[in-house]
Amino acid sequence: MKERWRFWGFTVLIWLIATCIDRYWWQNHNGLPAWDQADYLNSALDHGRALGMLPGGEWQGWKALLDLSPKIPPLASLVNGSVIAIAGDEPNQAAWSLSIWNGLLLASVAGWGLHLQGAKLGLLGVAFVAIAPALLQLRSDYVLELPLTAMVTLAIWRLGCWSHPHSGGGWRQALIAACTCTAAILIKQSALLPLFPALTWASLRALSNQQAAKLQLVVGLGVFALGILPWFHHNWITTIGGTNRAVIESAIREGDPSLLTLENWIWYPRLLIGQIGPVLLLVGLSGCVLWILMQCRSGLNDPKKKNHNDNYEAWKWLVFTLFAGWICTSLSPNKDDRYIAPLLPALLLCLARGWFQWELWAKNIFPKQSRFSMLLALIGGLGMATHTTLKEHNALLTTGPKGPLQAIVEAAGGADPNKSKATVIVVPSTPDLNQHNVSYFGRRNGGQLVGRQLGNNRTDISPVLAQAKWIILAEGNQGSVRKAAGLLDEAVRNSQIFTEIQRFPRVTGGSYSLWHRRDDAPKPKSFVAQFSTLAKGLEHGPNGITPVFSKIAIQHMLDGHFLYQEQIKKSSMKKLEGSPNDINAHWNLALLAILRNRPDEAAKEFSSLQDLLPNNPWPSAYRSIVTLADWNPWGAARIADQATKQHANTVLIGLGDLNGLIGGGFWRVPSASHSIPKAIESIEKTMNNPPSEKN
Q1: For the chain, what is the domain count?
Q2: b/e per residue, 449-471, with b = 16+ CB within 10 A?
Q3: Percentage of the chain with pLDDT > 90?
Q4: Helix H or strand E segment including 499
Q5: In the 8-state DSSP scheme, what is residue 313?
Q6: Same-domain pairing of 384 and 438
C-alpha cells in the first residue's frame, strides 16, 4: 500500500511540474486565439452559458443545449465551459482545462504502465508523456486533441483490462470500459479511428467467451447508445455534413496525399522524431529491438512462458491497438500533425519499455555497477530530452499573433453585459482577427457582440449595405479571404452608408478599422417580410428551396443572434390565435422549426398545411422528410404512401420507397430502383429553376 501511494504521489508531482511549466507559458504568451482555438473557446463559452454557469446565459432545456454542438460532440465543451466558470474567461484562464485533461492523460498512462509491468514503467511512461514535444504543444494550444488523447488512452487501456483473457471479464471492468469509450466519442467522433480496432477485438473476444461476457457486451452497447444517441439523434444531419466537409472536402482542398500512395502511409511515421524527440525515440526504439531479440533468445514462443513474460497479453493488446489505430488514422483522407496524437501515449509506453530494457541489459553486462550510476544515466537522458523540448516550446512565446482585437471589440460595445445583442461583420480573416475570436472577446464578461464573416461572394455586397450596422475592415494584409472580400471592402468605404469610427494599428504593419452605420443612412431592412415570402415559396416544392437557404445563409451572418426568428414566431403565433387556418403563419412556423432543428414541430405544421392545402403535394413531402429526420422511417413511409394515393407525384413515390427501405422494407427494392432515381432527377430539375423573387 505504501508503494502504491508513493507511485501515485510521484505521478501527481510530475503533473504539478508540468502544470507549472504550462501556466508559465500561458501567463507569458501574448498571442490571441486564432481560428480553431477561438472556435473551441466559443463552444466552451456557449455550453457554460447554456448550463447557467456563466453570465449572459441560462438553462433552457436539453434541446437548447444540444443545439450548441451540431457538428462536434459536446463533452469537452461542457467540461471546458465549467472550468471557465471557475477560472475565468481570459484565454489563459480558460486554458486551465488543458491542465485538467493533462492530469487525466498522465493518470491513464500511469495506470496502464502499472498494469503492464509495474511502477517503474508507469512512472517512466508518465515522464515521457509530460515531456513529449507534440503533447507539450497540445497543452499550449486550445484545441480538442488533448482531451481526445486523454480519453482515448483511458478508453483503450480500460477496454484492454476488460478483454484480458486472464484478469478481465468483470462487470466493473465492462462498465468502466463502456463509459470511457462513450466519453471518448462524445469528445470528438474521430475517436473512432483509434478505438475501432480495439472495440472490434474486444467484442469478438467477448462473443467467443462465456455467457457473462456476452451479456456484458450487450450492456456495454446499451451504455454506449444511451450516451451517444441523444446527441447524434438531434444533430445527425449536420454532423454527417460537417464530417464530410472536415474530412473529405478539406483533404481535397489542402492537397493531402491519396490513400494509394506511399506518402500517405509514411505521413505520420515521418513526424515521430519531431513529435517525440530524437532522444526518447532513438533510445526507446533501440531498446525495443533489444527487448524483442532477448525475448526470442529466451523462448518467447514457448506457450508456458507467454503469461509471465512482461504480461504478454497486455503487451499484445497495446501493440495491436497501436498498429491498427495507425492504419485506421492513415485511412482518413484528411491529414494533420495532431490527428495522430491519441496514439502517442501508447507509443511512449512502448518506448519506455525500450528504455527499461537498456537498464536490464546494463545490469547483465555491468552487474557491479551501482543503481545510483544507472539512475544518473536515466536522469541525464531525460534531461537532454526535456531541455530540447522546452527550448523549442519556449521559442513559441515570441511567435504568438498580437493585435488590437480587444480594443476593437470594446469600441463596438462588446464584452459589456449592459449592451444589447449586436453583430459585427468581419471582412478580413487573420490569426489575430477573425469572426471567431471577435465573437469570443465580444461575449466575455456576459457581452452580446458576435462576429460573422462575409465577403466570400459578390452577392454579399448588397445585403451588407442594406442591413449591417457594424463592420471591421483591414488596411494591408486581408488574411485568408477571397478576392470578393476586396470588392466588399471597397463598397463599404465608398457607400456613404458607413462612417469610420476608429483605426487600430497592427504590430505586423497595416491596420484594422471599425465602421458603423451612419445615423442618416437608410435604416436596415427588416428580414421578416422577406422570410414570409421565402417560407410561402416552399409551397412550390423543390424550386422554392434554393432561394430559401441562399437568402437565410446570408441573413444568419448579418444577424448572428437570429433575432428575426423570435419576431417571426411571435407574429405568426399571434395570427394563429385569431385565425387558426392562416396558411402563411403555418409556413412561417414550419420553416422556423426546420431552421431550429425541431423536426417534430415542423411535422405538426406540415400536417396542418396538408389539411389546409389538400391539392398541394408538397406539405406531405416535407412532412415525410422531417419525420425521417426524426428517426421515424416507418411513419415517414406511411405519410408518403398515403399522399401518393391522392397526388401522382414522382417525389412522393420515391420518398415512400426510400423511407420504406430505411425502415427495413426490403420488398420495396424493385420499386425503389426506379422511383428514387426519378425523384432525384425531378428534384434536380426543379431546384435548378427557382421561382422569380418579388421583394
Answers
A1: 3
A2: bbbbbbbeeeebbebbbebbbbb
A3: 71
A4: strand 498-505
A5: H
A6: no
Query: What's the pLDDT tens digit per position in 339-381?
Result: 999 999 999 999 999 988 887 777 777 665 555 545 555 665 6
Among 110, 38, 141, CA closest to 439? 38
Question: What are the phi and psi torsion angles at 136 (to 5°)?
Answer: -65, -40
Question: Are residues 381 and 450 located together in one domain of the fold?
Answer: no
Tell me the CB-side half-sphere exposure of residue 215, using CA atoms within 13 A.
5
Give residue for cell 486551465: 96
User: Are both 283 and 364 inside the same structural domain?
Assistant: yes
Label residue 321 left, alpha or beta by phi (over 0 means left) and psi (-120 to 50 means alpha).
alpha
Q: How many helices (H) and strands (E) does the chain have?
A: 33, 5
C-alpha cell at 660: 420504406
Task: Tell me the C-alpha distance between 550 and 544, whole Å.
Answer: 11
For 152-185, how does the pLDDT look when each residue is reduced to its tens digit (9 = 90+)?
999 999 999 999 888 878 999 999 999 999 999 9
Answer for the pair 644, 656: CB distance below 8 angstroms, yes or no: yes
Residues in the chain: 695
- Do residue 462 and residue 568 come from a single domain? no
Listed residues 396, 419, 448: the one ending a domain: 396
Determine the structural domain holding residue 640 and report its residue range: 532-687
Rounded to whole angstroms, the Cα distance separating 58 from 223 reads 29
Count CB atoms within 10 A of the CB of residue 626: 23
Out of 102-106, 253-257, 377-381, 479-483, the most confident range is: 102-106
Last residue of a domain, one of 347, 369, 396: 396
Q: State whether 330 and 479 are in the same domain.
A: no
Q: What is the DSSP letter of 333?
A: S
In a shared domain, residues 508 and 558: no
Residues 112 and 236 in one domain: yes
* CATH code: domain of residue 590: 1.25.40.10
**Cβ-contact 180, 342 below 8 angstroms:** no
Q: How far apart are the C-alpha atoms of 643 and 651, rounded to whole Å?
A: 11
